[in-house]
Amino acid sequence: MYSIHLIKNEDLSYHRDAPEIAEIRDLLARDWRVDLRHTLREGNACADLLAKRGARDTTSFRLLSRPPSDLQLHLLSDSRGITFRRS
Questions:
Q1: What is the pLDDT of residues 40-82, one digit of tens each?
Q2: Does residue 45 contact residue 78 with C-beta atoms inside 8 Å?
Q3: Furthest-apart CA pair in the chain: how many Å?
Q4: From CA 27, how far away is CA 7, in angstroms rounded?
C-alpha cells in the first residue's frame, strides 16, 4: 500500500526512486483508465512468479512470446477464480 501512496500522493523531492515514480505517474496520466489496487502476493500469484523470475534474471529486458511453463498452473487457477490461503 505504501507504493500506491507514493505514486498517488507523496512529495518526491528527496525520494531515491523519484525518477521511476515520476515515470509511473506520467504513464498513469495518459488518456486511459487505470485503477491501482493493493493485493496480497497470494492474490496475484502470476505477477509474483514473474517478479521473482525477473529479480533472478540478468537480462535488462525480456520479451516473453508465451507464458513460462511454471506459470501455466497459476494462469489456469486464476482464470477459474481459484484462491489460495495465506500461510
A1: 777 788 888 898 988 998 988 888 899 999 899 888 988 888 8
A2: yes
A3: 44
A4: 11
Distances (CA, A) of 13 to 19, 48, 54: 10, 30, 28
Q: Contact 86/42 with Cβ under 8 angstroms?
A: yes
Query: 53: which residues sit within 8 A by CB, 6+ positions away?
Result: 68
End-to-end CA distance of the chain: 20
Give 6's contacts (C-beta < 8 A, 6+ positions apart). 12, 15, 17, 21
Grid coordinates given for 20: 521511476
CB neighbours of residue 6 within 10 Å: 18
Spatial CB neighbours of 68, under 8 Å, sequence gap ≥ 6: 53
